[in-house]
User: Fold these one by one.
Assistant:
Number 1:
Amino acid sequence: MTLLVKGGRVINPAAQQDEICDILVEDGKIKAVGNHLDETGAEVFDASGLVVAPGFIDMHVHLRQPGQSAKETVATGTRAAAAGGITRVATMPNTNPVIDKSIIVEGMKYKAEHEGVVKVEIVGAISKGLKGQELAAMGAMAKAGVAAFSDDGRYVEDCDFMRKAMEYASMFHKVIIDHCEEQALVAGGNMHEGIVSNELGLKGRPAVAEDIAVARDILLAEATHTPVHIAHISTKNAVDMVRRAKAKGIRVTAEATPQHMILTDEALRGYDTRFKVNPPLRSDDHRQAVVDGLKDGTIDAIVTDHAPHEWEEKDEEFNVAPSGFVGLETSIGAVLTYLYHTGVVDLMTIIRAYTTGPAKILNLPAGVIAPGKDADLTLIDLDKEWVVDSDAFYSKGKSSPFDDMIFKGKPAATIVDGVVVMKNGEVLR
Ligand code: DOR
């Protein structure tokens, strides 16, 4: 099958390319990029007025399988991804059972192949049962094809254990993704520790908990010469430490979420559980520092930490409700509205953080528009205005901190292996 994506504004960070041209796709692969391409026999997708980018990758998503299909499934989560313009996700292992054995990885791969509307990478656990005590079967999981390892949701406390995990993972050319919050400092806390938590009378999770965790990981990366990736970075010290470590040549990378770059702890004043997340939404100085980190390349990837929960669970009192909320269907719109259209971050930087950034961290042959590559493309209408309506989400999770907001900028189509899986907001599979 041949598809011609015609007349779009191709923004391809790997080649520093930003120009109007056509992309010819044959049998799922990009065949040519240029003008006046021969379209004989091709289905034509008119992309005029749209940005055409390499397929967006979200390397931090919770598809909740195995075992938590009331919250999300591979089928519903990947449809949400397609709706959100995301062509590939990496799903986290804090499931039930935990993804800590090759047989579970294989099961998930099978599911992803048969039920996934977009591509799915599996992240294996670092420790058995996420308990931080015994290494999970990392070698066997690497062989089964995991993209990385993480105990996401929990910080890997034990320094010696973390050192061994980093060294072991690097033998398989995999990165460790760490959820950086020192446990003793955040115990019992439900929001960022600061003026707002004091006024609300809620116990906080201090920024220094993240700072200490990130500092430890950077020091271990330096000592072991192995890579580490900081999940959902959210504090100014953490961003600054990553910046300085990178300048020293230490192998550290970092990701940030739209929520930590756009929202602050002020949103918590109504005790609204839609804004409860770990690490928590912080004060504006931290938010600003994360945005600065994206601008100067300290932050490599934009991720959602898409964390669906059942409505009944979130509809609880603040201290009881689980942390996390969905993000796949709002990620691009939120970033374009609050970071691009406000003139804060340029489009090339944003698209890089959704494409080449995560592809490099996970060692994926993706995130690039070039002949021979998989035809994964994200098409965006930069100026489309729309109102976020969580009831209309493809995700099972309906709790979103962006609900009812007016966004400017929306994914117009999602193409995976040359197949249009979403057009104008409608998932076609
Ligand atoms: O708020 C969060 N929820 N943060 C995490 O790191 C995990 C996630 C979840 O799995 O619900």
Note: Residues 54 and 369 are 6 Å apart (CA to CA).
Number 2:
Amino acid sequence: MKTLVTGGAGYIGSHAAIELVAAGHDVVVLDNLSNGTRAAVEAIGRLAGRDVPFVEGDIRDSACLDRTFADHCFDAVLHFAALKAVGESVAEPLRYYQNNVAGTACLLERMAAHGVKTMVFSSSAAVYGDPATTPINENCPPDPKSPYARTKLIVESLLRDTHAADADWRISILRYFNAVGAHPSGEIGEDPAGVPQNLLPFVAQVAAGRRERLNVFGNDYPTPDGTGIRDYLHVVDLARGHVNALDYLATRTGVAVHNLGTGRGHTVFEVVRAFEAASAREVPYRIAPRRPGDVVVSCADPARAGDELGWTAEYDLRRICEDLWQWQSTHPHGFRGIKA
Ligand code: NAD
Ligand code: UD1
């Protein structure tokens, strides 16, 4: 199979590209480098043992997409390209709708024009908002709380409508829980621009001495130690899920929705302790006010992915922290090599 990976120069897409090549796919990466790096694409080639063609281009650029689809005979598209910062999406909603929604509409249109009707889409657990029950299964009614999360839910509708109009489409919607960790080689990982907004990258930079201390956003939640609980999923497990999703689509048309998570939740303090053990470094912290918009618990029910995709997460929190530390300690300033 030949697969186009949009956003493949970014964090999750680069890991997925490696897993795809390992599973025997030919891969082409398309990315506008708004958050991804050329260095990540080069690392994919090294780790996959084969050069991966790279198109620097935008999913909103029809002419670029037409050229790319004409140059390669794709069977499927893995669609990671998106803007993903929740806070930024509140401040700049139109940029998010433009990029994530209009961008996906443009991509789908060009795919249809070239007869490519198989897509795996990166959705998010953020579409669930703050559900009343936990763990969260795919039937929980969506209730997105930010423009970012709404772009994901709107794209899900766009995909359903696309299939309703043309039953040949094969679409997999994957709702990721918290993607964390790095490739075990330590060669690729998350490379946040500026101050990390998410827990694991921040903790890793504190352990590396790049930041003084972690702010723990609230220790008075109704959880065993008072801090928020999340379902942290190793990025390689997540990447493997995309290979399973493509296999699943090989035998059926339609629109499928699957949670990708471990089904296990960890508190902020559990993460801090696990990271201290993995890095043999201290992670100083202080208790800060709750972060507006945070939910208490977010944990996946991944049973459907297990039953239908044959996928389950293999790596635990210890392994997540070890692999992240390997990446952080060998690439203290990520791919960019720039101090934030
Ligand atoms: P990332 O920013 O590292 O990767 C996204 C890539 O898409 C970047 O390389 C960026 O340059 C590229 N891109 C953005 N807009 C583009 C455009 N218009 N045209 C071409 N390329 C474009 O983010 P990530 O963490 O790897 O996330 C990948 C996908 O997974 C995103 O769709 C994100 O919303 C989704 N997701 C991520 C998480 C997470 O925990 N990181 C959780 C849920 C969902
Ligand atoms: C974030 C996104 C969400 C996305 C998810 C997965 C926000 C508001 N939400 O949520 O849309 O789907 O990642 O990528 O960005 N924490 C601290 N100190 C920090 C950072 C985080 O205590 O410096 C705590 C948080 O309060 C939370 C936990 O750590 O309890 C995890 O936070 P984070 O990594 O930002 O993920 P989410 O909140 O799940």
Note: The longest helix spans residues 93-113.
